[in-house]
Amino acid sequence: MSRAKYAPLPVVPEQALPRLAVVVEVLAGIRTVSAAARELGISRNRFQSLLHRALGALAQEVTVHPAGRHARSPQLAQLQAELNRLQRVNAKLRSQVGSTERLLQVASGLLQGRIRASGRQRRLRSTGSRRDGGEESEPEATRAGLLDGADAMRQLHLSVPLQAAIAGVGASTLRRWRTRRRCGQPLLRHRHSVMRPVIANADTVNHAAHIVRRLHGLIGAESLARSVGTSRRVAARIKQLTLTRMERERKAGLRQITITVPGVMRGMDAMPFPGRRERYALIAADGAVPYRTSVTVGPRYDAGLVARALATDLEQNGAPLVYRLDRARAHDAPAARAVLAAHRVLVLHGPPRYPGYYGQLERQNREHRAWLRAGGGPDDGKLEPCLREMLEGVNRLWRRRTLGWQTAAEAWSARPPLTVDRDALHEEVRERARAIARSLSGRGQPADLAERLAIEQTLTRMGYLRQQLGGWC
Question: Which of 149, 180, 188, 355 lies 20 to 30 Å from 378, alpha-carbon distance?
């Protein structure tokens, strides 16, 4: 037994020995309760109560108790938990009070002028030398003090806008100063208000421009300067002028395609919705005006969905002369071809790997995604009603400057009827395609290039398609 649990022999006071001896004799059965009471000179009830208390204490001590510590009462446990909570709250409040005091000290230093906020104040240029550290070192020290104060507020978990507001500078300026300090750079940089003119001979300029063009503008100013033997500033200026000329040349070489009459050409593109039961939506739109004609949703982007979307669109809005589709395999499936052939519609596939050819549909999908994001997105199973509501809004409520401030629905309703002999149109396209195919080499070109060029030439001759050099993108 451990020393902590061992109980030594108790010391009984002398005046209590007679009572203890009589109680022991009664417990041993030597004396009766009445005789013991007469021996001690007390009443029988008094002695019996004394005997019972002694017997109870003895029974309490010899009883076998469960191992471990005594269980804490529920009331005491609840009070202890409440005490711990209050101690945590008190510690948190003390920390907040200390943080507030430190914050007030830093803020008062910034606001009372011990650390002056300079902002964008105009300073007079010093006429003396700047190497002595007088006029030139003071703005650097001021900014360093402001940054030190902002760092102190940052440790107190203040947001960057609040730090900047107290310091009297912008949030972006504060972030820029921290980046410069982290990189070991001075906080203050001198900028020249007027750019010095580029001084270089014609051969150097032409050589640098040639390198920029050959590398498609990827070369840096420092590398260009070392290649042509000039300063970095001159090389950067030459690169900037060359890139400007290259961009103007690119725009001048672009070809702008315009469909002049609504109802002549129609296009269709898919929008994916991952993680939904209806994962794809096919939206059809006219090529002349931004009028969305139909929307069809389905779980898989396959030939069945494309054929169903085409049939629904042609049934609701009539058949155009040409349907413009991208090169997805489902768009060229026999089922989709059969639906278009039944309505005597030509199929115009764009160049492979050339998203700019379908730029109109891509821009419209960008509007669709923005509309869905603003509305929180459709619920699962309610994609098609949500998309129909979207098309109703962009068709009938959005007045566009390109349409003379008409809505797309108004421009679509005012379209003239198509009085074109489709058999003659198809025959002309076939003849042009055969003539174009004879002049093409065929190597490295898509198989339907001749048909695509024939459709474009035929629509141009009929006045439905206009091509203009000089784009804007």
Answer: 355
Query: What is the residue range of 229's domain?
Result: 202-253
Q: Give me the CATH number covering residue 360.
A: 3.30.420.10
Residues 304 and 396 in one domain: yes
Separation CA 291–CA 283 (nearest Å): 11
Q: Are residue 267 and residue 246 in the same domain, yes or no?
A: no
Judge contact between 187 and 140, C-beta under 8 A. Answer: yes
Q: Report the distance separating Cα 48 and Cα 260, nearest Å.
A: 122
pLDDT digit string, tens, across residues 232-281: 999 999 999 999 999 989 888 877 788 889 999 999 988 888 776 778 89
109 — phi, psi (to 5°)?
-65, -35
CA–CA dist 372, 188 (Å, integer):
46
pTM of the complete model: 0.53
Cα–Cα dist 250/259, whole Å = 23
298 neighbors 278 (Cβ within 8 angstroms): yes
Ranges of beta strands (E only) in 84-216 are: none
